[in-house]
Amino acid sequence: MHITWLKLQNFRNHTEREVEWAPHLNVVTGPNGAGKTNLIDAIHYLCMSRSFVANSDRYVVHEDQSFFILKGLFHGSIRSEFEVTCSYSKGEGKKVFVNDSPLERLSDLIGRVPVVVLCPEDRKLTSEGPSERRSFIDAFISQINPPYLQDLIDYRKVRRQRNNLLQEFQYDRSTKEAYLEPWDQQLVDAGARIVAKRNQVIKQFQEYLHQQYDMITGLKHRTFLEYQTFCEPSSDPETIRDRYWDKLEEYREKELEREVTIVGPHRDEIVFYLDDKELRRYGSQGQHRLFALALKLAQLFYFTDELDDLPIFLLDDVFGDLDPHKIEVLLNALIDHAGQIFVTSANPIPFEEYVNFDGEKNRRWQIEEGVLERRD
Q: 141-144, long-range: CB within 8 Å, 24+ apart, which pairs?
């Protein structure tokens, strides 16, 4: 899958912008604040309906404007050409259109154009709390498995309704338990499928991670992901379902006391290990950076093997922390990959030493003071 054309209106510091992209490698250079990240964030919006930088749509609207519009034209080896439009207006919210037809749900966009993004914010994956890693694995699986995304949506709705019921003061215990029963059933059904799919994908992902960490570092460290959930993990939903019911019964008293759902995949953790040491607790800054880089490269190659269309790979200002040897290794890996790749860089990386920019396969761009120019 690749994007051939992109149009931005009132998106961050781009008031009006149109770009025609190369089918393989696109390198965008320029000083900090010039708008490099905004260009590839716009692509991410058209793939995932959200920013990988900002946590709210209103923060990406251009100053003194009330809306933004993004349009992109996509091609794939399996899917035919189609256009995606994402618009946001203060007071009306966000809308997504595919070939001018509105999507009923924003989630229907996920997976149409698979995308992997590598950015400085990825340090949170290895250094911060479990929610960062759950979000990573959920977004990962959702792009390749639509039923998983639907299970996530259903599970969140059920948990919210169940929590509301637990917090109802007008019901006595027996009444609450009677009302909880149908919600428990839905919670267990969706939750068991989520845990089983997470366990299956994490097991498959291990080898990809090991290969990419070894390729980037040249070191023979053992990488490992430990999936921690409310029971012994399994890839069989029926097995998880039985264990889930037992745990709900075990924690019934605590849930009634605390008035919140305690048991479920919303509390799962994925622990990263380098050799026998937990990365979050004992890893150096360099190990954290390289592990996050390996995670995203592993995701890229996992998607490449699992999907009919190749994913788009977005790399935002990641070369500045790498030494010359690792820059060479990473660029060679990107050159060898057949998918479309976008690289932003504020530092003067000698891309021309590794990449052939003659012809139309690869392109370089320079953005400065609001002007985007192609550099041949």
A: 141/197, 141/198, 141/201, 142/110, 142/111, 143/110, 143/111, 143/114, 143/115, 143/303, 143/311, 144/111, 144/114, 144/303, 144/306, 144/307
CB-based contacts of 311: which residues, under 8 Å, 6+ apart?
A: 1, 114, 115, 116, 143, 300, 303, 304, 339
Q: Are 308 and 78 in contact (CB under 8 A)?
A: yes
Radius of gyration (Cα) for the chain, nearest Å? 22
375 contacts 356 by C-beta, under 8 angstroms = no
CATH for 120-297 (1.10.3720.10, 1.20.1050.90, 3.40.50.300, 1.10.10.10): 1.20.1050.90
CA distance 97 to 109: 9
Both tokens assigned to 209: 């991670």
Query: Is 22 within 8 Å of 72 (Cβ atoms)?
Result: no
Q: What is the dihedral of CA 21, 24, 29, 32, to 10 degrees?
A: 80
pLDDT in tens, 179-216: 999 999 999 999 999 999 999 999 999 999 999 999 99
From residue 186, alpha-carbon distances to 56, 151, 191, 297, 331 in Å are 30, 10, 8, 36, 47
Helix (H) or strand (E) run with residue 37 in it: helix 36-48
As to burial, measured by CB atoms within 10 angstroms (0-12 exposed, 13-18 middle, 19+ buried), residue 359 is exposed
Domain parsing of the chain, residue ranges: 1-114+307-376, 120-297
Task: Could you please state the CATH topology (level 3) that the domain comprising 1-114+307-376 is classified under.
Answer: Rossmann fold (3.40.50)
At a CB cut-off of 8 Å and minimum separation 6, what does 65 contact?
10
Which residues touch 90 (CB under 8 Å, ≥6 apart)? 58, 61, 66, 67
**Residue 369, token pair as written in the block:** 């003071």
Q: How far is CA 210 from CA 12, 33, 105, 174, 311, in A?
A: 38, 35, 36, 51, 20
Dihedral, 267, 247, 149, 44 alpha carbons, nearest 10: 10
**What's the gap between Cα 352 and its chain centre?**
30
Q: What is the pLDDT of residues 227-279, one digit of tens each?
A: 999 999 999 999 999 999 999 999 999 999 999 999 999 999 999 999 999 99
> Which tokens belong to 189?
């059904």
Q: Whole-angstrom Cα distance, residue 223 to residue 258?
A: 37
Query: Which residues are within 8 A (CB) of 150 and not within 5 positions of it... i.e. 6 or more apart?
Result: 107
